[in-house]
Amino acid sequence: MNRPMKKQLITGVVIVGLLAGCTVGPKYRKPMVQPPEAFRGAGDAAATPDPNSLADLKWFEIFKDEQLRELIRAALANNYDLGQAIARVQTARANLGIARADQFPEVAAGAGVTTLRNSSSGQFALPGGVNRDRTFGSIVLNLLSFEIDVWGRVRRAKEVARADLLNAEETRKAVMTTVVGDVSAAYFNLLELDMELEIAKDTLATRQESLSLIRTRQHGGVATMLDVRQAEQLVYAAAQTIPDIERLIEQTENRINLLQGKDPGSVARGRSLTEQERPPDAPAGLPSSLLARRPDIRAAEATLMAATANIGVAKAAYFPQISLTGFMGGQSNQLANLFSGPGGAWNFAPQMTLPIFNAGRVKSGVRFTEAQRQLALTQYQQSIKTAFREVSDALVEYRKVKEIRAQQESLVTTLQDRSRLAYLRYQGGVDTQLNALDADRDLFAAELNLAQTRRNELLALVQLYKALGGGWRQ
């Protein structure tokens, strides 16, 4: 190669290298977010927020019931939604590998051997003594179409694939948070229904005893048939509650089994509803840390990153696309000379395509990706505001339900004493049966409400833990 040609080749390589360093399209910059100074609903802690957060604890440090822990472990291993999320992560990871491979040349090897025998008679017969058999061989290294990424289209496409992988991974963590919360909530619902069933059965037994007593008094002429019917009404009301609660119990058990990827069946219990441990406090932490802890927020940001990189992919269509194809190898009619002599062959074919007229397709494609980026930005901002609202709602719920539960316990204690005194007065003949029956009805309703309030307190803890972004750490 002479000196001028070598100089031109070096100059061309340098120019291509410099061009390959440029990338069209905007570079991703994290949007500025101004979080509130404290979570609304945190109570007195809002003035001086604790940097520690309930969500920093692992789920098995929050839920101390060993049976609940086993249910959560089984769900994390077998839940169908989580399995789909894991498959999406694997798909996104493979897609990133494909996008990364597009940055490198694709080379394929090919070899072939052809044997030909000519006819010994006819118009094209070979002279005598000439070998009728001919063998041709070839071996080639093919450089398949390789795009020189001058404008960064391939690199932007790899950024999109990497952001998609990040989105899939964060979505998987969000699904884990949901699974932990759903299993815990269903389990606490089940324990509350167990308590309701126990209350209903105890109430039914007490009312049946009262009915038996009233019937005895009616036979003795002390009570009336109206007294008997009123007592029967309470018995039937308690009795019809039992099968309804049993129905809800079996349906809740079926839901828990579905979350674990199992067929419908019974679910083992651990501690009762009143034996469940609650953390002494439930700090929310700093609002700024919520942005890094919530996987759904990070997934929304990954979507924004992919949308930003897609603008570069679309804008690269404005510029020429340069690609290379070729081959290098050997051809010979004698296999022995395939790798020697004049059998060498090569071909090098650079190609360039430049859009001239496409009826505005490229321009519309760029506008489309820019609109998609604006949509992703809006969704990212919305996910942040939604997260702050969910935390605030959960804090208010957790704080207020604790107050309600304390008042409900006092109400049940008062109604238990009222019911006892009302029946004593009725049996002593100094009060009517109506007051005793009213006290009994009020007590039954209050006991059921107390069970539900205790359940709601645990559910509020689950919701707060989930809203703060906990539950996906194992």
**Share in β-strands:** 5-15%
Oligomer: single chain
Q: Looking across the biggest beta sheet, what order are the strands in?
A: 1-2-3-4
- Strand segment tally: 4
The CATH architecture category of the largest domain equals Up-down Bundle
Separation of the first and last Cα atoms: 64 Å
- CATH topology term of the largest domain: Outer membrane efflux proteins (OEP)
- Give, in order, the helices and strands: HHHHEEHHHHEEHH
What structural class should be given to the helix and strand makeup? alpha+beta
- How large is the radius of gyration? 39 Å
The total domain count is 2
Tell me, rounded to a whole number, the average pLDDT. 85
What is the top-level CATH class of the largest domain?
Answer: Mainly Alpha
Note the main sheet.
Answer: 4 strands, antiparallel
| CATH homologous superfamily grouping of the largest domain | Outer membrane efflux proteins (OEP)
Q: What's the number of helices?
A: 10
Q: What proportion of the residues is helical, as a percent range? A: 55-70%
